[in-house]
Structures are given as C-alpha cells and as structure tokens.
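Quick review question:
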C-alpha cells in the first residue's frame, strides 16, 4: 500500500472453527491486496487449511512454537521491517476491509506524544457482543483506562498500532508469560511510558454463534486473567 509504506502487520493465526478459518482467510486476502508486509505466526496445518501460503507480502512462521514464542517472532519481525507495527487478531475481517480509512484516522492523531493507538468498538458496537464477553472485556478496559488516565479505552478488540521502538520492548518481557499475557504486558509497558490514542468504529460481533457453553465461559475467564496479569506486570504494578 503506497500511502503507508512505513507499516508492517503482525498477527497470529489460531483458528479453531470453520467460521474462524474463514475469517482469517479473508483477513489475509484483504491485507495482501493492500501490499502491506504481513508476518503471521501459525502452524503448518493451519497454513495449509487456510490456503494462503503463496499470498504476496505474506511471511509465515510455521512451527510448533507456543503462542508466546510465536507472538514474539511476529512482532519482532514486523518491527525490523517498518517504523510502525500494526498488531491485529487474525480473524479481524472488518478492520482489514476498512484499513486504509482506519489508518488515515490513526495517523491523523499520531504524534511524538502518542506512542500507541488502539482500534476499538463504539459502545453501540460493543453491545452486540455476548453479555459475558462484554463483562469480561470491560474489566480489562476499565483497568487500562484508569491507569492510562484515558477514559473509555477499548484495548481488548484486538488491533493496535505502535512504533517499532515500542514493539521491540516485547524482547524484554519475562519468558514465562503466555501469548495473551505477553501481548497485554506490551500494552502495559507502552502505556506506562507514553500517551494513548483511540480510534473507534462500528465493529459489531462477527459470528452467528453466541458464547454460551461452559467451555466458552472458561476461555473468557482465562482470557480475562491473562490480560490482567500481563497488563499489571507490564505496567509494573506492585504484587
């Protein structure tokens, strides 16, 4: 994408269902058409199932690495290839389809004082998500908002833009962190040392299936725990 030559995308491909595979496939297609370098961590099986191995501008790491190692690799690789890194969830089709316009908005508020910009949902869009997911994410978002002195942050949507100097902080993270803990550790680290920007859009819930099984609740609770643990460690809150 010629208007944004200074951006590389980092992501992890972890789809477990048909819906998630379809979303990840479409996200990668959208990004590839824009000509932005993409560094995606995944397994060999997922890469084959997605059928994206030969997309232009896409670099895949296909291995048995755990999620934390994959995340470190993807963000490190992106930071070495562009001055700005866009981290986004692999199934974020809506953002990938609107990326030129969203980046216009983000670069409009980017400055030396703002070191990280989150892409998030409007309150109306957030209400389309399953009630328990809203609750779990609201806890994390409120904690981040209080610490960053920025009301109404949405850091749980799964898309964030930061400069490569901040991205490289990920190499300083403790080795024992899980993938999600590591990502929120990086958020906390950046927020502690700089100001934050926010770009909101009508990113409504993308799936037809609601989260209502015990396994869904367990996953959301685990995500909440990992987010809060990682964020607090990155922000260097006392234990």
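Suggested answer, residue by residue:
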């Amino acid at each position: 994408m010629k208007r944004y030559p200074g951006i590389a995308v980092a992501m992890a491909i972890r789809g477990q269902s048909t819906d998630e595979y379809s979303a990840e496939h479409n996200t990668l297609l959208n990004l590839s058409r824009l000509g932005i370098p993409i560094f995606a961590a995944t397994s060999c099986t997922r890469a084959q199932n997605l059928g994206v191995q030969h997309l232009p501008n896409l670099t895949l790491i296909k291995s048995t690495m755990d999620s934390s190692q994959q995340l470190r690799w993807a963000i490190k690789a992106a930071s070495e290839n562009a001055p700005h890194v866009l981290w986004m969830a692999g199934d974020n089709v809506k953002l990938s389809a609107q990326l030129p316009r969203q980046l216009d908005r983000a670069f409009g508020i980017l400055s030396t004082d703002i070191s990280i910009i989150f892409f998030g949902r409007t309150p109306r869009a957030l209400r389309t998500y399953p009630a328990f997911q809203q609750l779990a994410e609201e806890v994390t978002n409120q904690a981040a908002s209080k610490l960053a002195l920025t009301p109404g942050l949405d850091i749980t949507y799964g898309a964030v833009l930061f400069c490569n100097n901040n991205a490289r902080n990920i190499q300083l993270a403790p080795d024992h962190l899980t993938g999600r803990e590591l990502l929120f550790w990086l958020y906390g680290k950046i927020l502690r040392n700089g100001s934050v920007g926010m770009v909101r859009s009508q990113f409504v819930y993308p799936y037809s299936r609601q989260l209502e099984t015990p396994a869904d609740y367990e996953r959301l609770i685990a995500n909440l725990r990992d987010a809060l643990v990682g964020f607090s460690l990155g922000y260097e809150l006392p234990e």
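Why it works: The chain has a mean pLDDT of 85. The chain has ten helices and seven strands.
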